[in-house]
Amino acid sequence: MADRSTDALLSYAQAADFVAASAQRLARSRPATERVKLAAGAGRILAQTLYADSDQPPFARSTRDGYACRAAEISSHRLLAVTGATRAGDAPSGPLPRHAVWEIMTGAPVPRGADAVVMIEHVERAGTTAETAIRLVSPRTIKKGENIVARGAQARKGAALLTAGAHIGAAQIALAASCGARELAVYARPRVAILSTGDELVAIAAKPGPGQIRNSSSAMLAAMVRAAGGEPWIRPIARDTAKSLDAAIARAREADLLLITGGVSAGKSDLVEPALARAGARFHFTGVRIQPGKPVVFGELRRRSTKQIQSQNSTKCLGLPGNPVSSAVTFLLFAAPILAALAGRIDRGPRFAQARLTEEVKARPGLTRFLPAACTFTAPVPEVALVQWQGSGDLAAMARANCYLVVPEDSQLLEAGATAGILLP
Ligand code: AMP
Ligand code: MG
After folding, report:
1. How far is the CA of 173 from the centre of ligand 1 (A)?
2. 23 CA to centre of own chain
3. Greatest CA span in the chain, whole angstroms?
4. So what's the pLDDT on residue 2?
């Protein structure tokens, strides 16, 4: 087995680079694709290029209710006659006669000859309804092009608006709808085996006996897998015996990605690494200088089945330390980027941001720490503070947190008021 002294472990940066490079290689072989109805595309990964089927906007469009005019003609000194009206949905009209304006509504095509739209709030009206005239209110002026989006300014017909690998959210669905796409080609979701191990674990529905706890991590990881674009495949709990682990791994390795929780520390019942070794795993790292999550294991198993969505010849596997906060942090740091690559996603995590610390944080140097923290995003600059916790088994603390404060490996003190990194879920 690998040398487990802390000095022999990879730093967080080294492990993260390694995982990013693995994800990059994985991403070269594209997953299988399927077609879904547009509405069902939300949360999926696009497997096609989306082209603009026409110019966007398809006509010069007014962005205001007001009057289409020539910027050179309109002023606060001279009244111009209102000679026509265009509403949203009307065909492009015109031409606009000289020294005249045209009433126009938001979203309507600008009449030919007009080069600006003056807002209704910025004009004075004179005359009767039959012969209305307007002028700019002083000291307003207007420039050519104002309040008009030129035809094709957003996108030209035939332009690639989205490319394969894009995450499909509400905005991407709106864009696809605007191009008339009733269906989208998306990548198949990678199936992620979630195998929790431990003699103390019982199913959620069971009443834990003395010394037992419920298996909360499988449900948590299933939610994280789903959020990251994977299809969770929760396996029955494996026991801390070689036989149970061997049988469980033999089945679970048919997945596209294998996540095992527990049993990777240095204790007597930590049998996962030897079991993976028996299954033929190649290890990339066994332990990283992070807290929580230090014993995390990353390796790969040779492929045996053809059920996987990619034509890889190996299945990546991660052994996540059993404490739920450790499992969550190591999932975000190391499993999520691999899963994103398997899902065909261009943007791959982990995602970091910055926030202002409201209290000082002391730490012992030597490990990069990812500590449960609560960040408020309501102020212009987000503010973050640690949540009180009883260590990495503290589910209640994790549920009070909404991010993890990053304490760099060489830090002893992060001062109150300083800007700090946060890992986002
Ligand atoms: P291990 O990594 O197996 O040594 O487990 C570390 C701690 O996490 C122990 O207190 C376990 O009881 C706990 N733990 C392990 N697996 C789970 C799980 N699936 N759900 C909740 N707690 C767990
Ligand atoms: Mg265990």
Report:
1. 40
2. 16
3. 94
4. 47
